[in-house]
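Key result, reporting period 2: structure in, sequence out.
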């Protein structure tokens, strides 16, 4: 993702990347992160208007926009998905929003403030079984754990403090 666009590279059977990407402009400025839904569509955050945008990946590497929805927060950066729901970290608002999709892949806002977090909420990851969401707030030096419930609800479990401020990156296994 660069210059308000998505770069899609072909990948050979040996894992080598194609020399030139296929570039598709984003629906909104500042594409930041993405994941994939169960159909293989791109589910992306575009931070300029704090939106989740979905795109179908075409055989030629181009992307076709399926829809866009804003959560009305500030700086939707990271996104993680579980059980048909997607959770966006709003760095500027210190909140987590939840989303789902229609059968056609159009994103919909479920809850603009599914959970409150801490300043600089950025990276997130879902446990392999889809039961827990972990969100790093680099601005506050915290790591929050949430249980993912029915309908994509989030229930706080605990907060770890004293994570290095401005820390980036998180994984769960």
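The corresponding designed sequence is given below.
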């Amino acid at each position: 993702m660069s210059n308000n666009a998505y770069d899609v590279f072909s990948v050979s059977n040996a894992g080598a990347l194609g020399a030139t990407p296929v570039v598709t402009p984003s629906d909104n400025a500042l594409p930041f992160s993405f994941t994939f839904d169960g159909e293989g569509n791109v589910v992306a955050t575009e931070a300029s208007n704090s939106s989740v945008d979905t795109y179908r990946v075409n055989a030629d590497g181009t992307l076709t926009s399926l829809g866009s929805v804003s959560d009305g927060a500030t700086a939707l950066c990271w996104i993680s998905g579980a059980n048909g729901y997607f959770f966006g970290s709003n760095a500027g608002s210190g909140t987590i929003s939840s989303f789902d999709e229609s059968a056609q892949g159009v994103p919909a806002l479920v809850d603009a403030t599914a959970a409150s977090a801490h300043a600089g909420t950025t990276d997130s990851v879902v446990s392999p079984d889809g039961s827990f969401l972990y969100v790093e707030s680099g601005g506050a030096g915290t790591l929050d754990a949430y249980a993912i419930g029915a309908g994509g609800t989030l229930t706080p479990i605990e907060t770890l403090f004293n994570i290095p401020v401005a820390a980036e990156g998180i994984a769960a296994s």
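Residues 29-160 form a domain with the Neuraminidase fold (CATH 2.120.10.30). The mean pLDDT is 94. This case is discussed further under Risks and Mitigation.
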